[in-house]
Amino acid sequence: MGSVDNSKYAHINTAVFDFVLPDSSVLDVGCWTGDLGRKLVDAKKCTVDGVDVYPEVLKEAKSSGYRNTYCFNLNDPVNELVIDTKYDFIIFADVLEHILQPGEIVDFFKDRLKENGKIIVSLPNIAFILYRLKHLFGNFDYKDVGVMDSTHLRFYTLKTMNKFFEERGLRVVSRVCYNEVAPQHSFLQILKHLWPTLFTLQFVFLLETVNGR
Questions:
Q1: Nearest to 109 by CA among 166, 118, 40
Q2: Residue 197, number of CB atoms within 10 A of its CB
Q3: Which InterPro entries match (predicted)?
Q4: Is 68 helix (H, G, I), strand (E, B) or coil?
Q5: In 51-176, which ranges are continuous DSSP H helix?
Q6: How many helices (H) does the chain have, and how many strands (E)?
Q7: 54 Cβ partners below 8 Å, 6+ apart?
Q8: Those residues with Cβ within 8 angstroms of residue 172's Cβ, 6 or more apart along the chain or in another chain
Q9: Could you say which architecture CATH assigns to the domain 14-209?
Q10: Cβ within 8 Å of residue 99, ≥6 positions away
Q11: Contact 200/178 with Cβ under 8 angstroms?
């Protein structure tokens, strides 16, 4: 496996961080170098485990305070991954859009929740106004990062996100319209509340299981 650019996904989604309660046990699926886990350990005294495909980024996550790390390709058969621990929170931050069979992955990890445990998911919104306009004129151009990241295998609107959760036996407890934008685009912070499906770059969800499923 070749080397990776460790800086590409090195950021913390503050909405994801805010959903996690202090002193919780957390599984960070697609943890990358562990920036999120480091902050959860330092600021909220959480116990954090991580899953990622690259040994080199897991080494960094371990040095960031992750208790256990699991090297696994989420596009491989998930029954080959052994995780016996139960968690208060399982996080999929910018992960499910990169997976061939995201439903199977969510179903597998959902069984690793403690009673009353929660799942946190962040997903990019393909229906953001910029991409609606580009697609209207036949432009479906991939980028290195962002909603049109060239490594994305799935694309979601808010409607299909909600359908996906319902099919997985998950109920939305809370939702955040998340725009990590430059200061000159701060007007989006206002517009996202008026028309979230059109002016939100990413949705972040706190989810619970329905009837213990």
A1: 118
A2: 16
A3: SAM-dependent_MTases_sf
A4: coil
A5: 55-63, 102-110, 129-136, 158-167
A6: 8, 7
A7: 1, 4, 71
A8: 162, 165, 205, 206, 207
A9: 3-Layer(aba) Sandwich (3.40)
A10: 74, 75, 105, 153, 154
A11: yes
Structure pTM?
0.92
Tokens of 182: 């430059």
Parts of the chain with a pLDDT under 50: 1-2, 6
CA separation for the pair 205, 113 (Å, rounded): 16
Those residues with Cβ within 8 angstroms of residue 187's Cβ, 6 or more apart along the chain or in another chain: none
What is the model's pLDDT at position 183? 65
Burial 3-24 (b: 16+ CB within 10 A, else e): eeeeeebeeebebbbebbeeeb
Structure tokens at 35: 């920036």
Predicted confidence (pLDDT) per residue in 54-110, tens digit: 999 999 999 999 999 999 999 999 989 999 999 999 999 999 999 999 999 999 999
Helices 158-167 and 102-110, axial angle in degrees (round to 10): 50
Listed in sequence order, the residues at least 6 apart from 129 whose beta carbon sits closer than 8 Å to its beta carbon are 198, 199
The whole-number pLDDT of residue 49 equals 98
